[in-house]
Design goal:
about 290 residues, two-stranded antiparallel sheet, about 30% strand
Length: about 290
């Protein structure tokens, strides 16, 4: 930690400054929530970070303002239109119980590196997480999946969420999800629009590590993928089990994530190419398992 509420870490040759991050060299600099800016942890786990210095990474120039949700009710309705059904992950995927999170709350990573629920901060219009599962088979254990969409009041506030995700990984490379679930060896790889094949979102973040629980044992692969498009963050995650490789997790998350972005772009008339996928670009450089 250095003065001014900044943290510095070397990650694959990227430099990111301030709350939204700018590519320049071989260091990554991200804002913590102690700098007097909007704070709040990313829903159900993480968020993507990145950007360029000119124009501002939070300056949105290709979204129709009239299509953006200005109220909590409109934001909540849009989220339900964007979130995928279980079949998007796999024909055999089913809803977990509870299927949807409490829309009045979201997860926050405490100083003790344990996740817990808190009331939504003022900068969040709405958020919702859905939970899914591909049931166990003879060769594989149960694969736990999730999708989450959060609507901030501004792109800048969504960008701060992304920066906090990177700070969380540096502060807590091991995190307790629940009393019997732990993720460890976390490694985050951010890319801004135009970097490493990212032509589909303002910011992208892949977070990988290992997952262990009382039910499935471990460690098994863990993956969290998040993108930011303007004031919106979209994320999908997979908690591995016996018989599931890291490549399998990327494959299961690819189509649901692409579909979420396409539905959001259609809703807000965002004119950004939709052909690329963060899941398809494993070359972002991460070698860990999450």
């Amino acid at each position: 930690m250095i003065p001014g509420g900044l943290v510095v870490v070397v990650i694959r040759g990227a430099v990111r400054l301030g709350c939204a991050l700018a590519v320049c060299g071989s260091v990554l600099v991200g804002c913590t929530s102690g700098g007097g800016e909007p704070s709040g942890s990313a829903p159900a786990k993480k968020a993507g970070a990145a950007a360029t210095a000119d124009p501002s990474p939070t300056e949105v120039v290709d979204i129709d303002p009239a299509r953006l949700p200005g109220t909590k009710a409109r934001a909540a309705a849009l989220i339900r239109d964007v979130l995928p059904d279980p079949s998007a992950f796999d024909p055999g995927a089913v809803r977990r119980t509870p299927y949807e999170s409490d829309p009045r709350r979201w997860p926050v990573l405490g100083d003790d590196c344990v996740w817990h629920q808190q009331a939504l901060p003022k900068d969040v219009l709405a958020t919702l997480t859905r939970s899914y599962e591909i049931p166990a088979s003879a060769a594989r254990g149960p694969l736990r999946l999730s999708a989450v969409v959060t609507v901030h009041r501004s792109a800048e506030q969504a960008d701060w969420e992304n920066a906090e995700v990177l700070e969380e990984m540096m502060r807590c490379p091991s995190q307790q999800l629940r009393s019997d679930e732990v993720i460890t060896s976390l490694n985050d790889v951010p890319n801004s629009l135009g970097d490493s094949g990212n032509e589909y979102a303002d910011d992208v973040l892949n977070e990988l590590g290992t997952y262990t629980s009382a039910e499935v044992g471990g460690p098994h692969p863990y993956l969290w993928e998040q993108t930011r498009i303007g004031q919106f963050t979209l994320a999908v995650s997979a908690k591995g089990a016996k018989g599931w490789s890291q490549a399998d997790l990327f494959d299961r998350l690819r189509d649901p994530h692409v579909g979420m972005r396409a539905r959001l772009r259609a809703a807000i008339e965002r004119d950004t190419p939709a052909t690329a996928s963060p899941s398809a670009s494993r070359s972002t450089g991460t070698t860990g398992a999450r």
